Amino acid sequence: MKNVEFISHAADVRIRITADTMEELFEAGMEAIAVLLHEGRCRQEGVLRSVRETVAVESPDVTSLLVDFLSEVLTYSQNGKAVFCGVEFEELTDVRLQARIYGIPADEFLEDIKGVTCHEAGIMRNDRHQLETLLVLSR
User: Would you call 121 helix, strand, or coil by DSSP?
Assistant: First the structure.
């Protein structure tokens, strides 16, 4: 089970993500970006897989991998004018990821997200033994 909580932050967007698995954690981060860019867009039927991209990332650790993956998703969103709602992982280790992301075209975004930061990010196990991290997205 995964959960995304948007936390009040003065200038940026702060998000707490919890998940049972690494796949769920990465997917929840991507879904949080989709909600911010165009809330409700991912619930539209029939067009979920109309935009497809391949993401391959290598990073020194799992937290950096998450930040780098979400940065790639955001770049594909902005360059391709799309909101990404689904992911299929071909490989996901602590330092490497290869995945297909699927999305929906979007003529406009409701929020302007400039980037995914490392500030406050750190994947750890919480007291319920779930993976948890905080993410700050700069506006």
Answer: coil
Query: Rounded to two decimals, what is the model's pTM?
Result: 0.91
Neighbours of 118 (CB within 10 A): 13
Domain extent at residue 35? 3-138
Condensed to tens digits (0 to 9), the pLDDT of residues 35-82 reads 999 988 777 665 566 889 999 999 999 999 999 999 999 999 999 999
Across 64-101, b (16+ Cβ under 10 Å) vs e yields: bbbbbbbebbbebbeeeebbbbbbebeebeeeebebeb
The structural domain count of the chain equals 1
Look up the CATH number of the domain holding residue 28: 3.55.10.10
C-alpha to C-alpha distance for 127 and 35, rounded to whole angstroms:
27
Rounded CA-CA distance 53/10 in Å is 33
